[in-house]
Amino acid sequence: MDVCIIGGGLSGLTAAQTLSDTSKVTIFESRPFLGGCLASYNREDYWIEHYYHHCFVSDEHLFSLLRELGLSDCLEWLNGSTGYCVDGAIHPLTSPIEILRYPHLSFTDKVRLGLLTLRAKSLDLGPLDRVPAVEYIREHLGERIYTSFFEPLLRSKFGDRRNEVSAAWLISRIAIRSDRGVEGERLGYLNGGWHLVVDEMERRLLNNGCTIEKGIPTTSIERVGEKWLVNGRAFDTVLATIPPQEVARLSGIGEFTAVPYQGAACMTIGLDRDVTDGIYWLNMKDTAPYGAVVAHTNFVPRERYGEDIVYLASYFGEKPAPSLKETMLSDFCRRFSVPESAIHWSELAVEHFAGPVYTTGFADLIPAYEKHGLSLAGMFSPPNYPERSMEGSIIAGQEAARKIMERNHG
Fold first, then answer.
1. pTM strictly above 0.85
2. How many CA atoms lie within 13 A of 407 on its CB side?
3. Residue 32, Cα to own-chain centre: how many angstroms?
4. Where are the alpha helices (DSSP H) in 20-106?
5. What is the DSSP string of 159-191?
6. CB neighbours of 46 closer than 8 A, spacing ≥ 6?
7. Residue 400: CB partners within 8 Å, gap ≥ 6?
8. Which residues fall within 8 angstroms of residue 358, CB to CB, at 6 or more apart?
9. Which of 1, 112, 146, 396 is most buried per CB count within 10 Å?
10. Residue 236 clears pLDDT 70, i.e. is over it
C-alpha cells in the first residue's frame, strides 16, 4: 500500500513510523526541515527549539516513544518557576509564600484560585465545552480575579477571540499545570533538545524505506478512480496532518468543517544576562507585543548553552503584525533594560496554523480520523482536545495510522 502523509510534524512522523513496516510511505513537508512546531535551530554549539517545549508526568505515549527511540535516558525532570510582570515589576508566583505576597489579589481571591486549582482535575469537562471561560471565571472566582489575573493571560494568548474560549480549555490547562511543589512545576525536557526525537525518527524512517520530501508544499489533492493524486502523484491512501480547512482548499471537498486556528510568532534570543530574576515563565500583565517571556535557561541549566536563552511568545489571527521582529526586540530591550550589545543573536519563528482556538462548542468541530476517504490527524484531533500537546499529537498519529491499517489489512 502506497501512503502519502502530508506534513512532517509529530503526528505525521508518528503515523509514518506506525505504517512504514507494512506500507510504502511518502512524507511531503512544505518546510526544509521536519518536526513542525518541534523543529530546532542549530546554533553550532547546541540545538534549541523554535518554540518552547516541555512535557508532563502524564505523557505516557511520549515516554513510550522515547523508549522505542532509545532516548529515555535523555529525559530529565526540572522545576519550572512562574511569575507575573505587572506595572514593570516582576512578581514570583512559584512558592506558597510568593503567592501570598502577591499584591494584586486579595487573600480571599488567592484562596478561591487555590481551591479551583485543587478541583480542576476532578471537574467534568464535557458541560464546560459550551461555557465561555470568561463567564466561568466571573461566576466562580469573581470579577477581580478575572480582571487582575486571567484577562491578561487570555488576551495575550487569544487576542480578540478571548471571549470565545471555553471553560473546558481553561480548566484542562489549570489541571495539567497543577503538578507543582514549593520549587515550581515539575516539567520534562530532553537533555540535548527535542531535535533528538525528530532526528532519530527521520533516521529510522529512512532506514525503513520511507521517502521524505522536504521543501515540497502540497498544492493539490485529487481523487481519481481508486487512487488519490497528491501533487499529481498516485497513492492508495492519504493522511493529512494539516488543518481540515486546508484539506478542503486543496482537495475541493467543501464538507470539511473549519477548525478555528491561530498563528504564533515566537522570538528566540541569545543574550548575556538573565532578565526575569530567575523565573522560567513570566506572564505579562503589562501591554506588550508578546504575552510571556519564557527564560529557557532558568529551566534548563545555562552552562549547556554558554549564554542565556529567552523566548518571547506572541499569537496572532490572520497574519502577524508588520515589522514584528523589530517591534518585539525593541520592546524587550527597553522593558528589561537590555543594551543592544547584550544580544548575541535572535530568530523569529512564525507558524500561521500554530494551534486551535478552543472556542465554545469546539468538541462538535473535531473531525473524525477518516472523512471522504481521507485520513486526518493532528492538533485538531480528539487526543488534542481541549489542549494541544506533544502527547496528543503522538496519539493522534498512531490512532489514524492504525485505522488505515485496519481498513486496508483487516
1. yes
2. 19
3. 20
4. 60-69, 96-101
5. GGGGGGBBHHHHHHHHHHT--EETTEEEEEEET
6. 193, 304, 305, 306
7. 11, 15, 239, 369, 375, 376, 377, 381
8. 165, 166, 168, 169, 385, 386, 387
9. 396
10. yes
How many residues appear in the chain?
410
pLDDT tens string 367-397? 999 999 999 999 999 999 999 999 999 999 9
Among candidate residues 349, 348, 346, the one with its CA nearest the CA of residue 269 = 346
The label of the residue with cell 465561555 reads 132
Which CATH code for domain 2-53+194-259+358-409?
3.50.50.60
User: CB–CB of 312/85 below 8 Å?
Assistant: no
Q: Which three cell numbers stand for residue 244?
A: 481540515
Contact 15, 37 (CB under 8 A): no
The answer for residues whose C-beta is within 8 angstroms of residue 139's C-beta and 6 or more apart is none
Alpha-carbon distance of 407 to 410, in angstroms, equals: 6
Give residue-wise pLDDT tens across range 61-115: 999 999 999 999 999 999 999 999 999 999 999 998 999 999 999 999 999 999 9
Residue 105 is classified by DSSP as S
Name the nearest CA neighbour of 264 among 304, 316, 204, 342. 316
Neighbours of 277 (CB within 10 A): 13
Contact criterion met (CB below 8 Å) for 66 and 38: no
Cell representation of residue 292: 510571556
Tell me the one-letter amino acid at 400: A
Q: Count CA atoms closer than 13 A to 177's CA, side-chain side.
A: 16
pLDDT tens for 180-192 read: 777 789 999 999 9
Sign of CA dihedral 357, 359, 364, 365: negative
- In 3D, which of 200, 207, 214 has the Cα closest to residue 29? 214
Distances in Å between the alpha carbon of 371 and those of 247, 257, 403? 11, 11, 12
What is the domain partition of the chain in residue ranges? Answer: 2-53+194-259+358-409, 95-182
Q: What is the spatial distance between Cα 134 and Cα 403, in angstroms, rounded to a whole number?
A: 38
